What does this fold into?
Amino acid sequence: MAFLRFLASIALLAAVGMLAITALPLLRTGMSDRLDPGEAIGPLTGTRILALRGDRAACTAALNRAGVAYRALAERVAGDSCGFDDGVTWAAGGARTARYAPAAPPLACPLATALAMWEWDVVQPAAARLLGTTVSGVDHYGSYACRRIYGRAAGSWSEHARAEAIDVAGFRLADGRRITVARDWRGDDAAAAFLHAVRDGGCRLFATTLSPDYNAAHRNHLHLDEAARGGWRACR
It folds into this structure.
């Protein structure tokens, strides 16, 4: 009898596993359909953003629902590992207010969606709470770049190679102040608290959020990306 119960348990586990495997593609499709960037961040928001990879129509529809002003970019192909087919860049007006410098970085649509939500739900509330002002601009070191991780000659390709990553160097405030990761990260004042808060909040939206706490290569920026790696997130 014990052996028969063991066999029954194995059969039940196998059936549950097959059900989960069958349901996963359906769940992924539903995730992208239901995303509304104008809503508050929830426990499944990051998963829903990742589900937009490879679904340009659903992604741009999400940006449209949220009132984000953007311009669609032409497909870019650069070999087997670089380029994008869902690129957008910011346009004037719309629900976003922070200006990026340099202007108009090419962004894969899921990354743009996450950045818009980060501005609304993380960056601006943190600026109001900790700095008593709003963020008027985001300074960055670039988004799309056809290169491998750390610019090495060999190894895995960076998410920058697909425009799924951006390196944020700092923020310009409405009152004229400027906060930089390089100068202010390790302080004990409101500027440092703000930078840590926007890093922590980014971990709920981006697949990867890396700061100076990760390693020396990130001493002067926050690396934000939407890497597809099976659902787990990197936050440091």
